[in-house]
Amino acid sequence: MDIFLFLLAPLAASLILTGIHAYLGVHVVERGVIFVDLALAQIAALGAIVALIMGMDPHGGSAYWISLGFTFLGAFIFSMAKSKRSHIPQEAFIGIAYAVASAAAILAMSKATGETEHLKDMLVGNILAVSWKEVARTAVLYGVIGAFHYIFRKRFLLISMNPKEAEAQGISVRFWDFLFYASFGLVVTSSVAIAGVLLVFCYLIVPSVGAMLFTDRIGPRLTIGWLMGTLVSALGVWLSVKLDTPTGPMIVCTFGGVLVLMFLVHLIIYHKRGNAEKHQLHGAGDRAYESEAK
Q1: Domain ranges across the chain
Q2: Are 77 and 17 spatial neighbours (Cβ–Cβ below 8 Å)?
């Protein structure tokens, strides 16, 4: 019982991460910028490392704001780097930003060799160490961001799914892209500090991909994504207790296993549907042949 009480805060944090990241994942997948999460996370980590070199507490408020400033800079670059020339995908700019931020982080880390444990904690995260105070603060922050996206949901969805139509309606795509990436970066900066890059990436991408196996509509995709993230979070925490393993990596592996199962169910459903459609076509053809014969 004591172990389960200890894991309640990490479970609550996981459910909060599910709520905001499953929604943002829909936009990320539709935009085709799958690795924007990793790029912004690396840029945020670079800002935290710079703060550490400046003598700040890596877990303090000053380091957080510097990290967030770096993230907003990355958001501005991504919103401006969207090329109208189709043969230069935005993902290319995101990959370049990730590589440069990673190299800069390595160079900065070479100047802070005595702080490797702090740096590892910042880059990897430790969801087991999350406190109820952090859970409450994160819930309020994500609630505000969620409300912002809900108010302007039609505009964000239109830009993500049909940017040409958004431009035709006179919407400033680059301005709203910046607002999207800035709010996304704010979420990533806070989430990575709690759960680490891998777990945040899974919360962002896996529920959306799993939902897309069964529906293309936004509402059902969100419902399936939220349901999947909630069940996987609870199952991952339970397995980490039963198997005595780290919670974060266990949730990541559980996401992978559940996604494989969902893909197999998808194959079974669509294989049966395909066979049924074939039988209907053959039946219609036979009836047409018999009608002509008569």
Answers
A1: 2-293
A2: no
| Burial annotation 67-79 (CB, 10 A radius, 16+ → b, else e) | bbebbbebbbbbb
- Condensed to tens digits (0 to 9), the pLDDT of residues 140-167 reads 999 999 999 999 988 998 998 888 888 8
- Residue whose C-alpha is closest to residue 24's, from 198, 207, 151: 207
What string of H, E and C letters represents the secondary structure of the chain? Answer: CHHHHHHHHHHHHHHHHHHHHHHHHHHHHHHCCCCHHHHHHHHHHHHHHHHHHCCCCCCCHHHHHHHHHHHHHHHHHHHHCCCCCCCCCHHHHHHHHHHHHHHHHHHHHCCCHHHHHHHHHHHHCCHHHCCHHHHHHHHHHHHHHHHHHHHCHHHHHHHHHCHHHHHHCCCCHHHHHHHHHHHHHHHHHHHHHHHCHHHHHHHHHHHHHHHHCCCCCHHHHHHHHHHHHHHHHHHHHHHHHHHCCCHHHHHHHHHHHHHHHHHHHHHHHHHHHHHHHHHHHHHHHHHHHHHHHC
Residue 134 pLDDT level (bands cut at 50, 70, 90): confident
- Nearest-angstrom CA–CA distance, 175 and 113: 40
Q: Are 236 and 254 in contact (CB under 8 A)?
A: yes
pTM over 0.90: no
Would you state the structure tokens that stand for residue 208, as one six-digit string?
A: 């959306």
Cα–Cα separations (whole angstroms), residue 102 to 24, 74, 163, 227, 275:
24, 13, 30, 34, 49
**Domain at 2-293: CATH code:** 1.10.3470.10
pLDDT at 217: 86
pLDDT score at 86: 54
